[in-house]
């Protein structure tokens, strides 16, 4: 067996790994680079049979999770190419397709589940559910020709499913030849320290919501289900109602988990901003709206309810809130990677909030493991070699790990 990292040895995101054994091939992930605003053909890796399906030696794609930097180029792949993913990942991507422009679901989908081994030609694949900011995320063990490669995907130890990381450290896959190890956090100031847990993030939300005198706006990803749970729990603990939009309601529903907050729960309400009402009309999403309408809150009610609300917020919603005159005493929380605030949209958001006299604070923890936890995983797994992926710090891996065998994008390596 041999492998090629098409993208990810020198960047975070855009992940794509090709494996070859006995004359056939598979891909692990097909992500859109973080710098790209949309999927375009020039971003596709050089993989025969990927876009036109003319090469039967390409057996399929296995997706680790539902973040765009791991699946975002799937709409450009041959629609008949089989794609394997988790059941909740499939539901989340299907639900998102109603709202995300240009998103197309593959027609041939196979479902995988935690530690249930399956075969694609000579490749024997075992998925391991991991703790990550994406729901239903997996690491992947691939075996072929008597060799074993473990792809970490994206993972961490400090989320609400941190016990999964502990389980992997206690009972890791044995006899791993190559560990493709993500290192997203390694170039950041907190790389050597433990990161805040999701439980600690919840406590910070509680303090912030309790101190607020008006509407609290939280800028967070609706697909970060751990964070949605933290926001909901903090809102409930402080006597507030969590206000979500239709997209967030669909993401929560798509988890299929009855323990995840839903639009019909007490302390949850639905608000559809103007841009989303246009989407509903243009795409005929009335059935989707109908299944979430039980706790719907209309603009004319926002002003009176504002002091009791926590709102999952996107910049496009500011117009609706200003028209509703509900921003007196409002505050905002940034609960995503702070690097986004340095981009044009982040700068524009901060300027708009400043103009509206809305203070912005940050409450966040990474969706990726700290160096300490990555070292724990490597020490437990004892691979023959560690290959950097999904990191800007591949050149520094030898400072932190043993048996590092770095490679370049597009370089094939024998195992």
Describe the fold and architecture:
- This protein is α/β, with parallel strands linked by helices and 415 residues long.
- It has helices at residues 68-71, 87-97, 162-170, 198-211, 225-237, 246-254, 274-283, 286-290, 302-305, 318-324, 344-355, 371-381, 397-400; strands at residues 2-7, 16-21, 24-28, 58-62, 83-86, 109-112, 118-120, 123-130, 137-144, 147-151, 178-182, 216-219, 241-244, 268-270, 309-312, 331-334, 360-362, 385-389, 412-414.
- It contains 13 helices and 19 strands.
- Helix 2 packs antiparallel against helix 6.
- The N and C termini lie close together (6 Å).
Task: Itemize the secondary structure elements and their pairings.
Layout: E1 2-7, E2 16-21, E3 24-28, E4 58-62, H1 68-71, E5 83-86, H2 87-97, E6 109-112, E7 118-120, E8 123-130, E9 137-144, E10 147-151, H3 162-170, E11 178-182, H4 198-211, E12 216-219, H5 225-237, E13 241-244, H6 246-254, E14 268-270, H7 274-283, H8 286-290, H9 302-305, E15 309-312, H10 318-324, E16 331-334, H11 344-355, E17 360-362, H12 371-381, E18 385-389, H13 397-400, E19 412-414
Helix pairs in contact: 2-6, 3-12, 4-5
**Main sheet properties:** 7 strands, mixed
Structural class: alpha/beta
How are the strands of the largest sheet arranged? Answer: 6-5-4-3-2-1-19
Share of residues in helices:
25-40%
Q: What's the pLDDT, averaged over the residues? A: 95
Query: If you compute it from the alpha carbons, what radius of gyration comes out, rounded to the nearest whole angstrom?
Result: 22 Å
Total beta strand runs: 19
Instruction: Label the overall shape.
Output: globular
What distance separates the N and C termini? Answer: 6 Å
Low-confidence sequence ranges: none
- SS field, number of helical segments: 13
Query: Beta-strand level of the residues, as a percent range?
Result: 15-25%
């Amino acid at each position: 067996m041999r492998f090629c990292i098409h993208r990810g040895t020198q960047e975070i995101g855009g992940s794509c790994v090709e494996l070859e054994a006995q004359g056939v091939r598979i891909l692990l992930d097909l992500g859109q680079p973080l710098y790209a605003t949309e999927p375009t053909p020039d971003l596709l890796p050089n993989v025969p049979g990927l876009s036109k399906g003319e090469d039967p030696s390409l057996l399929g794609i296995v997706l680790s999770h539902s973040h765009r930097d791991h699946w975002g180029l799937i709409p450009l792949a041959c629609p008949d190419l089989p794609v394997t993913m988790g059941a909740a990942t499939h539901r989340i991507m299907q639900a998102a397709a109603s709202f995300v422009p240009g998103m197309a679901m593959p027609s041939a989908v196979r479902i995988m589940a935690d530690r249930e081994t399956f075969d694609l030609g000579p490749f024997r694949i075992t998925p391991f559910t991991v703790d990550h900011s994406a729901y239903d995320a997996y690491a992947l063990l691939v075996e072929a020709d008597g060799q074993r490669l473990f792809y970490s995907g994206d993972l961490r130890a400090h989320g609400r499913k941190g016990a999964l990381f502990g389980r992997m450290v206690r009972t890791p896959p044995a006899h791993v030849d190559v560990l493709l190890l993500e290192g997203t956090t390694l170039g950041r100031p907190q790389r050597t320290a433990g990161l805040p847990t999701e439980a600690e993030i919840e406590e910070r939300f509680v303090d912030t919501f309790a101190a607020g005198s008006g509407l609290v706006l939280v800028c967070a990803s609706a697909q970060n289900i751990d964070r949605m749970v933290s926001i909901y729990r903090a809102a409930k603990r402080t006597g507030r109602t969590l206000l979500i939009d239709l997209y967030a309601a669909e993401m929560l529903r798509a988890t299929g988990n009855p323990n995840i907050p839903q639009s019909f729960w007490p302390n949850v309400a639905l608000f559809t901003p103007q841009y989303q009402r246009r989407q509903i009309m243009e795409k005929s999403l009335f059935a989707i709206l109908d299944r979430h309408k039980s706790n719907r809150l209309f603009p004319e009610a926002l002003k009176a309810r504002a002091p009791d609300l926590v709102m999952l917020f996107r910049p496009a919603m500011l117009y609706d809130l200003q028209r509703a005159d509900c921003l007196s005493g409002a505050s905002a929380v940034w609960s995503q990677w702070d690097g986004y605030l340095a981009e044009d949209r982040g700068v524009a958001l901060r300027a708009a909030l400043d103009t509206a006299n809305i203070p912005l604070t940050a409450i966040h923890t990474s969706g990726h493991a700290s160096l300490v936890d990555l070292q724990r995983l490597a020490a437990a797994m004892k691979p023959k070699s560690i290959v950097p992926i999904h990191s800007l710090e591949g050149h520094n891996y030898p400072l932190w790990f043993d048996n590092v065998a770095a490679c370049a994008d597009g370089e094939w390596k024998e195992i």
